[in-house]
Amino acid sequence: MNKKIIAEIKRYGKTARGRQEMIKHLEGERLTLKQAVNARCYDCMGFYSDGKLNCNMPRCPLHRFMAYNENRLKRKDNQTGQ
Fold this sequence. Notes:
This protein is mostly helical. Helix content is 38%, strand content 0%. The protein contains three helices and no strands. The relative contact order is 0.16.
C-alpha cells in the first residue's frame, strides 16, 4: 500500500516542503515534530498539486506551523539584541 502512495507522490507530487518527510514516514522512518507537521500538510494539501499555497484553514491546529503560511510561527533564536 505505501509503495503505491510513494510512487504517486514521486509521479504527481510537487517538490515542496513535506515531500521528502512524507516519503520518509511512509517508509517507516522516524520524523521530528517539524518534519511530521510538514508531512501532514503535504498530505492534506494533496501533495501541493495546485501549487505551494497557504491552505487558509485557520481552524486546523497545525495551520500556525504550515510551511506556506505567511504568518507561521518561526523559531526565535536566543541572539543578543532580540
